[in-house]
Amino acid sequence: MKTNENFNERVIRLVAGVTIASFFIYHNSFWAFLGLIPFVTGASGFCPLYYLAGYSSNK
């Protein structure tokens, strides 16, 4: 799987994923799983939506 996100975007997605998950875990909500989406895409460097759109921020 080829990465289609640059380093800065990956860091932002990782931080956003942890922040979203932490917020909802603090409020005891099952919506904490939403934080997994940006976290997993940031950790892997691959965004399926970018792939479908033919876009890549990784130069």
Instruction: Work out the strand percent.
Output: under 5%
Count every beta strand, where a strand is a DSSP E run of 2 or more residues.
0
Question: SSE string, helix = H, strand = E?
Answer: HHH
Which consecutive residue ranges, at least 5 long each, have pLDDT under 50?
A: none
Which geometry do the CA atoms define?
A: elongated
List keywords for this structure.
59 residues; 59% helix; mainly alpha
Summarize the helices and strands and which ones pair or pack.
Elements: H1 7-26, H2 36-44, H3 48-53
Question: Care to describe what's here?
Answer:
- With 59 residues, the chain is mostly helical.
- It has a domain at 1-31.
- It is built from 3 helices and no strands.
- α1 runs antiparallel to α2.
What's this model, at a glance?
This protein is mainly α. It is built from 3 helices and no strands.
